[in-house]
Each structure stands twice: as structure tokens, then as C-alpha cells.
Amino acid sequence: MTKTALFAGALLICGFADSTHANPEQDRSAFVEHYRKLFPTLSLQDYADGVYAIDPNARESWRAIEEFPPYEWAIEEGKTLFNTPFGNGAHYADCLPERGVGIAQLYPVWNGESGEVVTLAKALNDCRQRNDEDPLPYQKGEIASLLAYLAYTSRGKTIAIEIPASDPRALAAYEAGKDYYYRRQGQLNFACATCHVQNAGKLLRSELLSPSLGHTSHWPVYRLKWGETGTLHRRFSECLKQIRAESPGAQSEEFRNLEYFLSTMSNGIPINGPSIRK
């Protein structure tokens, strides 16, 4: 089978064959319907649990760990960092809607002025730079703790990403993210969708492949493999490394557009971050 045919097949699975006639909400409906057929006993809200929604045995162990989660310190550190003023006396809260509390479900957002997708992590670093502070590394450390705290304040709020119809650049960014998701790349010639759409619920070696629906709902996560809390874009880079593809880097335009697409597909799913994964 040719690469073109494989790509077309991935699009057809979720009803994305004719992007010129589908809008984001039609894409999302097709995405949800695909997983409804795969996992008919799950509700939309269940997908906030990620792979544990489809793995009852692992779910019990996960719930036990969540009783005393290893990311708890990250929430506390993030709260302290968030409430500590910059050198000029300004705060993160001064840069964010609702002073930053309970807003994680709204990100990424489209910034019409700068003409780009702005993730919550980027908004935090943009705030720092506007206040003469150095930007934080995007994959772990203080940025992960800040995101953990902000996600915690949004727990239970449903993802509500908007793509403004008045700005065609926003739709173009969404489409770019969708294209990246379905594009095969790397030495293994995999796309994100190869694992998480076409083969969701199947085993790859010893790992059960998680559904894409809800993928952005539970970040940042404490991964046992990492031994620390890390960001969604760190995981994006890791996935690309696993398929031997080049990563554009955390908070690159490609990754921000990808997050915009994935979060739009998860509209209506509650925020459940931070969380823990293997």
C-alpha cells in the first residue's frame, strides 16, 4: 500500500477525507463517533482518564496511586511560584484572564494580534518576558509545576477551545495541527494517528495504546518513567523520538498547532490534570 493510500485511510477512519468541506465541529463529531464505536461503554467524560478508561486492571492501580499522588508537590510548588511577584512587582495573574484561576480548559487560544496559537505554557513565558524575566524551559521544572497548579484549579471544567470564524488564520492553524497529526514521518513511517486512532486499544509490545480523545485533558503528568512531572510537549517530543522522527521542539509552531487540534477534538471532556502515567 502506498504512503498516500495509508494517509487517506487514516483520514477516512475519522471522517476527515474531505477537509475542504469539514469544519472543526464536524471533525470533532466524527472523532467522537469513531471512539464511540470502538469503546461503546465509555462516556465522553470517561476519556479524561486517558488509557485507564479502557484498561480496567491498570485503572485500579492508577486510582490507588492517585490517593497519594507523586505530583502533589508540583501543585504546591506551582502555587508558590504563581503567587510570587516578579522583580518589578507584577504577577503571572496580571497577564491572564480571571487572574489565571480556572482557565486551563480554555487553552490553547488563538491570538489574532500576533497571528498564532498561544498555549498556556507560552502565555506564562510571554508574561515573564513582558516583565523582564527570563523564559522557563518548556519540558519540565518550574513550567511543569506552574501548569500543574493551573490545571488543578480547572479540574472538572470541560475543555472549551474556540476557533474564531472571523479569522481564517485560526482555522489554518487548526488545519496545520490536524495535518501534522495524520502525517507519517520518521524511520518507522508512523503518524500520531497510527497508534492513537487506527490502533487505539491494541497492544504495542506490552503497552496498551491510548485513544486520542481526551489526550490533552490530564497534563502535565508525573510519569514513573521520568520520575518527575513533565509537559505535554515533552511527551510529543518523546513520541517522535520513538518513531525516529525529528522533533520541532517544545512550543514550536508545529506543536502548538498540534495541541490546538487535539484540544479542539477533546472539547466537552473535563480537565483532569495533573495526573500520573507509567
TrEMBL record:
Pfam families: SoxA-TsdA_cyt-c (PF21342). Substrate binds at R235. GO terms for cellular component: cytochrome complex; periplasmic space. Heme c 1 binds at C95, C127. It is found in: Periplasm. Residues 1-22 form the signal peptide. Binds 2 heme groups per subunit. Transmembrane segments: none annotated. Its cofactor is heme. It is an enzyme of class 2 (transferase). Its main location: periplasm. Residues 77-158 form the Cytochrome c domain. InterPro entries: Cyt_c-like_dom, Cyt_c-like_dom_sf, SoxA. It catalyses: L-cysteinyl-[SoxY protein] + thiosulfate + 2 Fe(III)-[cytochrome c] = S-sulfosulfanyl-L-cysteinyl-[SoxY protein] + 2 Fe(II)-[cytochrome c] + 2 H(+); S-sulfanyl-L-cysteinyl-[SoxY protein] + thiosulfate + 2 Fe(III)-[cytochrome c] = S-(2-sulfodisulfanyl)-L-cysteinyl-[SoxY protein] + 2 Fe(II)-[cytochrome c] + 2 H(+). GO terms for biological process: sulfur oxidation. Keywords: Electron transport, Heme, Iron, Metal-binding, Periplasm, Signal, Transferase, Transport. Its EC number is 2.8.5.2. GO terms for molecular function: electron transfer activity; heme binding; metal ion binding; oxidoreductase activity, acting on a sulfur group of donors, cytochrome as acceptor; transferase activity. The active site is at C239. Heme c 2 binds at C192, C195, H196, C239. Heterodimer of SoxA and SoxX. NCBIfam families: thiosulf_SoxA. Belongs to the SoxA family. This is SoxAX cytochrome complex subunit A. The lineage of its organism: Bacteria, Pseudomonadati, Pseudomonadota, Gammaproteobacteria, Methylococcales.
